[in-house]
Amino acid sequence: MRTRINLKIKNIFRFELSLIIALLFSLLHGAGVIRGQIIDGISQLPLTQANIVIENSEIGTSSDDNGEFVLKCPKEGYYSISISFIGYKSKILYDIWVRPNAYDYQKILLYPSVILLDNIVVTESYFEKSSLNSYSVVGFKNDQIRRAPGAGGEITRILNSLPSVASVGENRQDIMVRGGGPNENGFLIDNIYIPSISHFNQPDGRSNGPVGLINTELVETMDFYSNGFSPQYGNKLSSFGDISYREGNKESIEGNIGLGLGGAGGVLEGPITKRSSFLSSFRMSYLDIISDAINAGGLPSYNDYQGKINYRPNPYSNFTILGILGSSLYERNVKDARSNGEDSYGYVKNDQSTLGLNHRFIWSKNGFSNSSVSLTDQISKNDFFNIDTDSTLNAVNDSYKTLHVRNVNQIRIRDKVNTATGFEYHNRDLSYDFTLNELYLKDNLIFTNVAAFSNISFPFKSISNISLGIRLEKSDFDEKINFSPRVNIDFDLPLQFGKIIFNGGRYFQNPPEKYIGLVEDYNLESVRAEQYSLSYEKLLNESTKLSVSIYNKKYSHAPIVLSDDSTASPAFLMDRSITFNQLQSEGNAEASGIEFLIEKKRAENFYGHVGGSLFNSMYVDYQGIERNRDSNYKYILNLVGGYRPNNKWELSLRWSLFGGKPYTEIDREKSLLFDQAIYFTEKYNEKKTPVYHNLFLRYEYRKVYKFWNVISYIELWNAYNRKNIETYIWSNSQRKLTEVTYFSFIPVGGFEIEF
Question: CA-CA distance, 523 to 231, in Å (whole number)?
Answer without folding.
Answer: 26
